[in-house]
Write a structure and sequence with these properties.
Layout lengths: L3 H27 L4 E4 L2 E4 L5 E3 L2 E4 L2 E4 L1 E2 L1 H8 L23 E2 L2 H21 L5 E3 L4 E5 L3 E6 L9 E6 L14 E4 L6 H17 L2
Helix pairs in contact: 1-3, 3-4
């Protein structure tokens, strides 16, 4: 059982890895910040570097996520020059030279939630789910409504699913400033997520 502090530290470290080791370098080379879920981790859509388990993986090697982001990037043959420049104001604000560590069990919990979310989102929508670096959430947009899962953030430290209309809705279903959210414990399966997303879709139409 992973305690809350260990989980939050690992989630934050993995969020920073997504920004500094995948999205940032990919954006500077290919103009995209999008990432996608793969077996046991996540990877850039154009940048062949992934976080798999508690490791950084690239075509020529693999190394434990530990130390500093600058050191890891150097081992993989590139530089951690920071997050994507000028695209968003959110993010970790992590210094590439700040030391960190990742707990394997906590990392597995993050990856597992993304995997469940990815499966549910692919069944729910035709659009491919995107893992975004600014808030480290996996989502699709359908009819000006965002549907997604998050491993947690500053305001909501535990994993959750959400439905976020671009235009705010009002009613009992909408229990968060951005729309509606459910804790992972309430929608822990693909079927549970699908039910939540479909209900959110219907409520977004009815409450418009």
């Amino acid at each position: 059982m992973v305690d809350d502090i260990t989980y939050e530290d690992t989630r934050f470290a993995m969020h920073a890895a997504a920004e500094l080791l995948i999205a940032g370098p990919q954006y500077r080379r290919f103009g995209s910040i999008r990432m996608r879920i793969v077996l046991g981790g996540f990877i850039g859509v154009k940048w062949p570097v992934s976080v798999t388990g508690a490791d950084l993986v690239w075509p020529q090697g693999r190394i434990r996520l530990h130390g500093t982001y600058s050191e890891l990037a150097l081992a993989a043959g590139f530089e951690a020059d920071g997050p994507p420049d000028g695209l968003y104001s959110e993010g970790t604000g992590m210094d590439p030279n700040e030391p960190f560590t990742v707990d394997s069990e906590a990392a597995a919990a993050v990856h597992d939630w993304f995997a469940v979310g990815d499966t549910a989102l692919r069944r729910f929508a035709t659009e491919q789910p995107v893992l975004w670096p600014e808030r480290f959430d996996l989502s699709v947009s359908v009819g000006e409504v965002n549907y997604g899962v998050s491993p947690g953030d500053w305001e909501n430290p535990h994993p959750y699913a959400y439905v976020g209309p671009w235009t705010r809705r009002h009613g009992e279903f909408w229990n968060a400033p951005f729309g509606a959210k459910r804790a992972r414990t309430e929608v822990s399966t693909v079927e549970g997520l699908l039910e939540f997303f479909r209900e959110g879709q219907a409520r977004a139409i009815a409450d418009a």
